[in-house]
Request: fold
Amino acid sequence: MKYFFNSAVMKTVCAVLLSSLLTVGVGAAPRVPRVVTDGTEYRGAVRLIDGTAYVKLREFSERLGAAVTWDAAGSTARVRTDSLDMTARAGEHYAVANGRYLWCRECIFIDGGSTFVPLRVIGKAFGYETRWDADTFTARLTRRTSGIADGGRFYDQSEVYWLSRIINAEAGGEPLLGKLAVGSVVLNRVKSPDFPDSVCGVVFDRAHGVQFTPTANGTVYNVPNDESVAAAKLCLEGTTVSEKVLFFLNADISESFWIVGNREYVMSVGNHDFYA
Reply:
């Protein structure tokens, strides 16, 4: 599972983090991990930011024979091989590779004219398995395939359909983190023996009354926005705010406060409070 810290202003935090970590004084440079790909030392630039190793997207990709293009207007790099089509946009917390949405706990960023992406993310896109060797402070990448499996085959389209729609109906106006939190509730319920075992089943569950208001007022059928679809796919990749959250409500508009009195409070994201 992938976890990340709660923040309603992820891009602002990212900018502050970079300004503090990328400008390092003499004698304060953090330890930089070794990177070994298929037994060969990687000689490219590596940055360590809050425990995440970053590499230059172009440098890493071109060493593997990929073509890299840059869209200045969208601050987006595109990487292409016969087996991979990947985009990475500065400021975002995910990259898209062959239609797969890959979470970046710390955001993709530009420094010195280069786009930096998490090593594990770009490695996964190229078909590498990454293992961390704490004893030698080394990331070891082993090539398993020529590129990540296509999203069209990886995702269950029914799960994407209903998860993106309930996320959009409940949190379409919330930041990405709020959308991911709603998605986490749905998927945690799928895993729980106390709820139906499918996304569709959870969304339309009425065993103890309507569970999600959008299924009663019809907004669950609205076409989701792009970020709601992205959030759904990120959740289906394993990204979660918490494995505990099973309930949520907006206290300003809720008509029932049973959750507040009967469930354990976990966090608040945007306009929603989340409970276990």
About this structure: The chain has a mean pLDDT of 91. Residues 50 and 106 are 8 Å apart (CA to CA). The longest helix spans residues 176-191.
